[in-house]
Amino acid sequence: MSRRWTARVALAAGTAALVVLVVFAGLGSVVLMGVGWAGLVLTAAGGWWMLTHTGWIRGLAAILVVAAPLGVLILYATAGLLWVVLVSLALWAVAVSAGRAALVDDTAPGMPERSVGRARHPFLIMNPRSGGGKVEKFHLAERARALGAEVVVLDPDRRQDVAELARQAVRGGADLLGVAGGDGTQALVAGVAAEHDLPFMVISAGTRNHFAMDLGLDRQDPSRCLEALTDGVELRIDLGYLRAGEPADGNAERVFINNASFGVYAEVVQSPAYRDDKARTILEMLPDLLTHHSGARLSVRAGELTVDRPQAVLVSNNPYERGDPAGLGRRMRLDSGELGVLSVGVGNAAEATELLLRGSQGRGLTVAAAREVVVDADARVIPVGVDGEALTLPTPVRCRLAPGALRVRVPRDRPGVPHVAPPMDWRRVRTVALTMGRVAAGRETA
Prior knowledge:
The protein is an alpha+beta fold and 446 residues long. It is 41% helix and 23% strand. The chain has helices at 3-25, 28-52, 55-78, 82-102, 134-137, 140-146, 162-171, 183-195, 210-214, 264-270, 278-290, 349-358, 426-445, and strands spanning 113-115, 122-126, 150-153, 176-180, 199-203, 232-244, 254-256, 259-263, 298-302, 305-308, 312-317, 339-344, 365-370, 372-377, 381-386, 389-394, 397-411. Helix 7 packs parallel to helix 8 (183-195) and helix 10 crosses helix 11 (278-290). The longest helix is centred in the N-terminal third of the chain and has 25 residues, at 28-52. The chain is globular and about 80 Å long.
């Protein structure tokens, strides 16, 4: 279905959702909507109180989270209008889904790529523990060696410096570096590849494979990534660099390929109890962290933007798409030349409710882009999550972007990066439904 017709379906479904309410509920439709919004507000407020309190207050908040939506449903059922609400909601869901799909511009060009010759001395590092043992499951080492690559499989019983292994390989004549492992290991070796201007190859053998996803690689079958050794193309992408402390401290920069996180999440994962009982640790630590009773008080400078005392900050190598939940998920491009900045600061139940209802338009969420971001704090050291690795770093932490710093070798034939549907915008949907039709008619006349 074309974007024009998808937009028309969205408009029709949205109109039908309102008509169903008005025709079958009459003036009561206004009351229905008011009750629904009230239930949503109470649920959001209860969720905030549950996260920021302990003891009996948390217990009452949990009851409110359950009772508010349940009470709304009971009121609808008692009035004999539950089916009206459910049908209207279903039509509205169709409208929003179709509307967002209509706003996806699948004609937008992807990252430029160029054909390259086959590497003569590829060197690959493989972590047998990553992704629950994908290296062994997909016989990645054997397949890579059969294609002419030198492969080092890490010893799971001892810690090895993967960056130094990569540097040794470069000194030995390697003309391509690659990793089958998690994003943290990918970042370390990618830094060496960028340092020597060598192509870097990603094999999606990690658990989540966020970097591989944003490169459009096959995350279900990592052996397909090996096709880059025989029939590959090259992308030029940006790299993030992070330096902790003052410049005079002389600390080395660290590469990040995905993101660096600060605040609540970084504090929680640093806790010794987190690995043993994640849910309990989060519930115990969140009240003090969200109310600033514990943890460092952060400040963020991103270009001309300054954010004080956010509870969580995410600095990413290129911005994440806005259409994903909370702004996270995929990056359509890794060559925009800018860092993405996502900051969350919620001070009370009203702000939490606004953030839930308005999403990226809420006051508690700040979204920006910049070439350099500085995260400071009222503490000498702060916890930081860098590509999933939990670190403790001195402040301030400076993040910068190096445009086009990394050459990435990927298979010519690969799934590609799925287009992310942007946030719903009814004005744009109406424009697509009407304007595209006029443009098409004009072309036919011409």
